[in-house]
Design brief:
This protein has helices spanning 13-36, 43-50, 54-60, 72-84, 92-110, 114-122, 125-150, 157-172, 179-198. By secondary structure, it is an all-alpha fold. α4 (72-84) runs parallel beside α7. The chain has 2 domains: 13-63, Arc Repressor Mutant, subunit A (Orthogonal Bundle), CATH 1.10.10.60; 72-198, Orthogonal Bundle (Tetracycline Repressor, domain 2).
């Protein structure tokens, strides 16, 4: 989704114009997808709605699925920063819990279409497949950073497991009456296991 963006705003005129065009395309795509369904909206319709050419659209989004996940790179950067820039003394699972809670609250507060956005993904096989590929990339990158921050070897299975379950916890909490509580309890379990692993 586009409304939860927290990356720094580009300062140059050209960069601002490029970012604004990308935002307009993503917003138009999401609006049309939510109105009519992903499969019933064509690329040309999205380009027309954003007042750009299809060539310009593809410069920003190489595949149709990417229009839905326009913050993929930013989200991964924020995820990795949550581990690298955590306060002294804070465990990695606790840092990831705080990140998950911040991300969920920001998205839900900023965009009333939050629930509809996930319903769109869940009901569209192409988007589910794209999300899974994105999820695997984030998981691998997160596992690497966890290993670096923990002084463990690259490819350590405990780091891979923590990354896997840390990314899965927010998804598993969907539909729970108290999403924050569900996320917190999941990360409490991860934190207890991680702390036990770290003990001599």
């Amino acid at each position: 989704m586009t409304e939860t963006r927290s990356a720094p705003v580009p300062v140059g005129r050209r960069e601002r114009k490029k970012a604004a065009t990308r935002q307009a395309i993503a917003d138009a795509a999401l609006r049309l997808f939510l109105e009519r369904g992903y499969d019933d909206v064509g690329i040309r319709e999205i380009a027309d709605a954003a007042d750009v050419s299809t060539t310009t659209l593809f410069k920003h989004f190489p595949v149709k699925e990417a229009l839905v996940f326009d913050e993929d790179a930013d989200q991964e950067a924020r995820l990795l920063a949550a581990v690298r820039e955590r306060p002294d003394g804070q465990s990695i699972p606790a840092a990831l819990r705080d990140h998950a809670l911040r991300h969920r609250r920001a998205a839900a507060d900023a965009d009333p279409r939050f629930t509809a956005f996930f319903e769109l993904i869940d009901s569209t096989p192409a988007l589910r497949d794209y999300l899974q590929g994105m999820w695997l990339r984030h998981s691998a990158a997160l596992a690497q950073v966890i290993a670096e921050e923990s002084g463990l070897p690259s490819g350590d299975p405990a780091c891979a497991a923590l990354a896997h379950f840390a990314l899965e916890a927010p998804r598993a909490s969907r539909g729970h009456p108290d999403t924050d509580e569900a996320i917190t309890r999941a990360f409490d379990l991860l934190d207890n296991g991680w702390q036990a692993l770290a003990r001599p």
